[in-house]
Amino acid sequence: MTRLRRDPLWRVLALAAPVRSRLLLAALLAVVTVGCAVALAGVSGWLLATAAGQPPVRSLAVAVVGVRAFGLARGVSRYVERLAGHDAALRVLSGTRSDVWTALEPLVPAGLPGSGRGDLLERLVGDVDALQDLYLRALAPPVVSAAIGVLAVGFSVWLLPFAGLALALGLVVAGTAVPAAVVLVDRRAARHRAPARSRLTAATVEALAGAADLEAHGAADAALERVLSADEQLRSTGRSAARAAGLAEGLQVLAGGLVVLAVLLAGVPAVAAGTVDGVTLAVLVLVAWACQEVTAPLPDAARALVSARAAAVRLLELLDAPAPVPDPLAPRPLPEGPLGVVVRELVVRYPGAARPALDGVDLDLPPGRRVALVGPSGSGKSTLVDVLLRFREPTSGSVLLGGVDVRTCAQDDVRRVVSGCLQGAHVFATTLHDNLLLARPAAGAVEVEAAARAAGLAEWARSLPQGWQTPAGEAGALLSGGQAQRLSLARALLADPPVLLLDEPTAGLDRELADAVMADVLRATRGHTVLLVTHRLAGLDEFDEVVVLDAGRVVQRGPARELRAVPGLFRELHQAEQAADALLSLPWPQRPSARTAEPQGRR
């Protein structure tokens, strides 16, 4: 039993526990529907065969009423069965999709290194939808076939034992051998169908999201080729499914014909011998023929079961994935009042990395203090931000928030206190105004305007024909890189967390605008606790301390004026920035190669 409960399908079926009664009702109604169809065939056979002998009309009245009753009952029960079944399935899918989303949230961004947006989208949509077939097409048909098959065989045995045995044999073959043959044909393709859909979705999302860059670099044809290749793989699995469906239909017709033939071979001699009459034989033949409706859904049910298993495996990979940063079982509350951040001997090592991303980093960020974190690319700045936001667990060392170790607190509690503008922050496909209100839905117009003005966004937004109601487009597609960055910065300023993290807040802006925006940000955050992560060294004199990272270690720290006055990495970076700014200020034909502006030894 323990091993059964570990089976992916068993675990997915457990998700349907809240709507179990609705699924049972749908299965019962399906039994009634198919039972009415078989009974309708039997009564119709008796009516037609009896009417051929021209008996008194009154002797046919009960059969006529039965035909009408079974015909109406079949339609009504089919409608109610579909209504109940789809209602139950959609309720389960809604809950499952919510569970998958809940499982995804703590895995982002550090817990899904091998999954792209297209793959996650396919799992959240395609794989969850595939479970609908499990509840609607894979569960009920075997139950219906077993129940109606037993009744039909029992009825046939009662009328003519040999005909009943022939029907039983035919139903067993059609209900087991035919689905097994179909699954054998479709099994390999079914296992690859969900991954193929995932690859196609991923390739399509990548091509659409990067269409402009692909065209600019002449790589559009290669991206299109990847999409077409993924599409061909999916179509290959579709052709396999079509072959399996055709095989199922053909074998079902063949099995049904053989069952009818077997009943005739058993019944005709019995009629000749006077054991049964012709009316009884007509009833037996039509009941046998109607029993094709009993076994017809079974091949599709078997295929749906295989596909649902593949989808269940992929979904459970997400549901079972360990969170990179687990929440404590009994989270400690954060203290009230202004909170400072203290980092001590922090070490973060990525799996398989030759050296730690952070190696013994110390950082003090008391309430009201503004600290800038600088260093070359790959020095560990963004890793430190991830640790402070509880996106990543440190290998060793500690991060204290208000004197409390953040590992003992709930992640959501930490992020309510420590938040801000992250590098590559997402812009949602809604208006500029709604994008800002994500940070604080109850914010008023004055607060929104102040945050936008501090980010250098207000004047531009007011100049647009639709103003703040201008759509941003999918992932900010209708905005420039600088506009999207300013929108993200304004959102962070509007949120106004106690500890504000700004990770490259002026990325994508030109030099003059970046300096102007940073000056506005410094005015807007005066008196706040701020950690600025930046490559831009201009304007850092306003910060209480500058911490310089290199290869994961703190190599310098102190006020910007002092760091510029002593030899070291900060002065080298500052000189390189000044040289680059000087080059950019020259007319284009007079600019020398940018390589000459690089500090010696850091090319």
Give the arrangement of secondary structure elements:
Blueprint (H helix, E strand, L loop, with lengths): L1 H4 L2 H7 L5 H32 L9 H44 L12 H22 L1 H20 L1 H49 L1 H6 L3 H54 L4 H13 L1 H4 L1 H23 L21 E8 L9 E8 L4 E5 L6 H8 L7 E6 L2 E2 L5 H7 E4 L10 H6 L7 H10 L3 H6 L17 H15 L3 E5 L7 H14 L4 E5 L11 E6 L2 E6 L1 H6 L3 H17 L18
Parallel strand pairs: 3-8, 3-9, 6-7, 7-8
Antiparallel strand pairs: 1-2, 1-4, 4-5, 9-10
Helix pairs in contact: 2-12, 3-4, 3-6, 3-10, 4-5, 5-7, 5-12, 6-7, 7-9, 7-12, 9-10, 16-18
Structure explained in plain terms:
The chain is an alpha/beta fold and 603 residues long. It has 21 helices and ten strands. A six-stranded mixed beta sheet has the order 6-7-8-3-9-10, sandwiched between helices. A four-stranded antiparallel beta sheet has the order 2-1-4-5, covered by helices on one side. A hairpin with a 2-residue loop joins strand 9 and strand 10. Helix 2 crosses helix 12, helix 5 runs antiparallel to helix 12 and helix 7 runs antiparallel to helix 9. The chain is elongated. The two termini are 63 Å apart.
Put the structure in a nutshell:
This protein is of the alpha/beta class and 603 residues long. It has helices spanning 2-5, 8-14, 20-51, 61-104, 117-138, 140-159, 161-209, 211-216, 220-273, 278-290, 292-295, 297-319, 381-388, 411-417, 432-437, 445-454, 458-463, 481-495, 511-524, 560-565, 569-585, and strands spanning 341-348, 358-365, 370-374, 396-401, 404-405, 418-421, 499-503, 529-533, 545-550, 553-558.
